[in-house]
Amino acid sequence: MYHGTKKTKPKKIDSCSIFHELGFISIESLILIIMIGLLILTGLTAYFFAVGQARDKQRMSDIAAIQTALQIYYKENGFYPTGQSIAQPMGMTGYLDNWPTPPQPSGLCTKTQNQYLYSQKANGEDFNLSFCLGQKTDVLSAGPHTLASKGIQ
Asked: Across the strands, what pairs with 133?
């Protein structure tokens, strides 16, 4: 007499059968999958747009800090600092604690454009500070820009 256990085949789970058990037919399942995909795509698009905006807000904050430090330097010394650099210009110690590092490039900005490049102009009467925005902001278009003593060009 045999007293072993009866072997049964494991039930194969089919993704279509799951949808059928839930009451979906093939067309409804396809539409559901497409709708989920569109929701995910919309969410990712909004996320990447928000990340780009945050980077550009950081860039504009950095530019404002540099501009303020340069204006104070000019008022105290009668000229803008000398040099041409992606690092802090000579003589800026005490006016700007650290020369900011731009966020990662995004949008229209290449790695080369994504630097805060300072240069003195007109024997210290003016300066240029180049920077790049990845997206359009309230006032500026996306792409490379230059800050001078008269403002952003």
From this structure: 143
